[in-house]
Amino acid sequence: MDIVTRHPSNPLIRPSDVKPSTEGYQVLGSFNPAAVEFDGDIILLLRVAESCVPEDGYVSVPYYRIDDSGSFADVLRVREDDPDLVLKDTRGIFYRGADYLSTLSHIRLARSHDGVQFRVEEKPFLFPTLESEAFGVEDARISHIGDEYWITYTGVSRDGFCTMLALTRDFVHVEKKGIIFSPMNKDVAIFERQCGGSWYCFHRPNNDGFGRPSIWIARSHDLIHWGEHSCIIRPQNNRHESLKIGGGAPPVLTDEGWLAIYHGKGDNQRYSLNTLLLDPEHPEQVIGRGKAPLLEPEEPYETDGFFGNVVFTNGMIIREVNGGKEAWIYYGASDETSCLAVADMDNLVRHARGRI
To answer: Among 7-21, 88-102, 129-143, 166-180, which stretch is predicted with the lowest mean pLDDT?
Structure first.
């Protein structure tokens, strides 16, 4: 039984649909979108990865100049025969005492009336302005709480990766609140309702080297300061989750509990998606977990691309359809494009219960 149906218009957003953020940059990927309904539209916050336009005889890398006067996208151009240039690998260079990445990400906003045809804005919505973001900002997630939208995203710097927080009310003006989970931690998704007077979130400490990266949960009274941490699930000993797992979009409260979709990284660096069901009053308690992947890379746009064999979600919209509810799961494919899969909510819960 196919629980999810890929939209026939996939991929919805390709790199060619996105304008480079500055002269000299080229877009390599527009993927891993956060998703929310706002003012009659569906909004996606895309991770846009850019590199520099190649130039014969030079190695060029993107970077941000961050100082008291502001933050500015720029290009570092170094002659290939420069004795100070060290080519680390395809991911970056070392030049005159500093590291630089070969690609740099920011968050771009896209809007749609129907959830399928999107208009991508020309300018970044979130981009590096802080030292903790100097190597890029990645993989946003959106939680709608009251009249505010709480956006968690990954900040990358020479100190590793951490989780940042930003707030907006209108998706025009945005306020950065800084680091809420220090390095090395990511995949933070905030639950949109309180349980027992506390807020909850998923997070994922990078404990590889001793154990495998797993999904943790934390509690907060103000959505800024988090504690009472506990690990709720670890990778299953199968080919789908042999390396690590991490949370996806903010969980959705159903009649049977909090439903979440998470990702697993398995054999041959392959990413798939699975379901998780948590107790509605005590979300640190797991009451269900899919026995088999919900979605695996199968289509060409999922198996081939910038980094093939990847499906990765951090955005989900719940829509009323013919008296029932559908989950519109927005996901990144091959670290290159943004796609959509649709599933009946009842079937997702059954999957998490191990009944499908």
So the answer is: 88-102
Helix/strand/coil for 208: coil
Average pLDDT over residues 236-244: 96
**What six digits make up the tokens of 36?**
């929310």
Task: Give the model's pLDDT for residue 262.
Answer: 98
Distance CA 241, CA 235 (A): 5
Q: Where are the beta strands (DSSP E) in 96-159?
A: 98-101, 104-112, 119-120, 136-145, 148-157
Q: Read off the CATH number of the domain in which 278 is found.
A: 2.115.10.20
The structure tokens 């991490």 sit at 246
225-248: average pLDDT: 97
CA distance 59 to 341: 39
Give the DSSP letter of residue 345: H
Q: How many domains does the chain have?
A: 1
**210 falls in which pLDDT band (50, 70, 90)?**
confident
Distance CA 230, CA 217 (A): 6
Burial class (CB in 10 A: 0-12, 13-18, 19+), 7: middle
Residue 317 burial (CB count, 10 A)? 20
Domain that holds residue 160: 4-352
CA distance linking residue 212 with residue 283, whole number of Å: 22
